[in-house]
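debug: dumping io for the single-chain case to check the tokenizer round-trip. Nothing else runs in this session.
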Amino acid sequence: MAKTDVVIGIDAGTSVMKAVAFDLEGNQLAVAAIANRYDVGPGGAVTQPMGRTWADCAGALRALGEKVANLAARTAALSVTAQGDGTWLVGRDGPVGDAWIWLDARAAPTVERLAASPLNRRRFETTGTGLNTCQQGAQMAHMDRFHPALLDTAEVALHCKDWLYLCLTGVRATDPSEAGFTFADFRSRAYDEGVIGALGLTHRRALLPPILEGTEVTHPLTAEAAAATGLAQGTPVALAYVDMAMTALGAGVYGGGQNVACSTVGSTGVHMRAVAAEKVHLNAEGTGYVIALPLPGIVTQVQTNMAATLNLDWVLSVGAGLLTDMGHPASHRDLVGQIERWLAATTPGQIVYMPYISEAGERGPFVSARARAGFTGLSQTHTYPDMVRAVIEGLGMALRDCYAAMGPLPSELRLTGGAARSRGLRQILAACAHAPVRVSAREEAGAAGAAMMAAVAIGAYPTMEACIAEWVTPLLGPAEAPDTHLETTYDRLFGAYGAARRGLVPAWDALAGKE
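debug: decoded output
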């Protein structure tokens, strides 16, 4: 009989579905990935067919089996995390239409209505989370008013990972993280009737599933799921927390010092700090998230930018397009290769860039569907490399803006995401945050976080702290201290950034057609 020495983490991202195999010491063995598509419709609709998402998950697990010998017999447990927010409705006979994912913007008018309610501050102080169109609570409130048949037909409202857990185990459930920031008290990790009432969903209370703690409870892989995935029936399956929490856990948001923070600099920017629940800083603006970690009494404070490297992708695509139109074909990759040289050749802090390139606006540390990107301070002496530098500095300004909304700046910043490989970008982020940076060598932090939960659930580690000590801490690189001169420059630039952000609100409103 084969030794069960493998744990699998499934990470169902917005654009990529991954299944990753690890040994019980946290070493990554293999990755299988499948493109995870979404559909865009009128009125801000962004959806995913639920059946297709499950088929992609099963396909990724089968592909992983082709890379790891005897995977089915060797797998001790698996766990699933996924893209956060969104609404995945299931009825008696299966999915109720396509899922509304986190990019869906149809609930914007409902968010404005709920945010203006006198009940909203109490809701925020209970959940620790500001309202936005991404969230299941806002989306369900919108459905209840404008598409009630969807909720009338449903028996349970799930998130993406919950849907995949149902497909794997037949169990309808959610976890403390997503239940917490949507409908629960982050201190007790239990549903709060006042929060549900503030969203106008008391009469839909029965749609909310039980909350499971994935480090303590597993369910067996069903025969149907075993046939679809190639894994063994009965394999323990753990329900992980939301992908933001799992990525931060796998990258080092917890352990090794006070006031440590973790930022994922990818298409979006996710900025998180781990704190005891009683030490959460709730800002006056009512923005951000409080998301539980799979550690007793520990939560993450979170602020998220709708767009991080999407801003860089945009400015590089503009440059590549112009060169190609002029008969000098250039790719995005070609221009990425020039970034370090451009950063070395340009002067810091000359231009303010608002990094709000997403059509959905911004959600952290302020919420505005009308926020838009732009440059302030351009002159005839500035060049394209100056603009590229300004865009990257804009990412640093947004990072600082987010951490400032959560309390003191971090004492150490741990980075994950593809952009963290850039030395120039790391220097900019370190100076903006006034903190040394460390980069995690963990390639698949989200899947690792999920797999860590499975490893603890089956008793391979007595506690999550013990698992972190072996899976996470050894993979953190050396601390890179910020440049003091650059810190001074970016202190000045941050003042200009804040003034521009506040001053541009009337312009954003005018562009959106609102006086």
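debug: round-trip ok. Residues 384-404 form the longest helix (21 residues).
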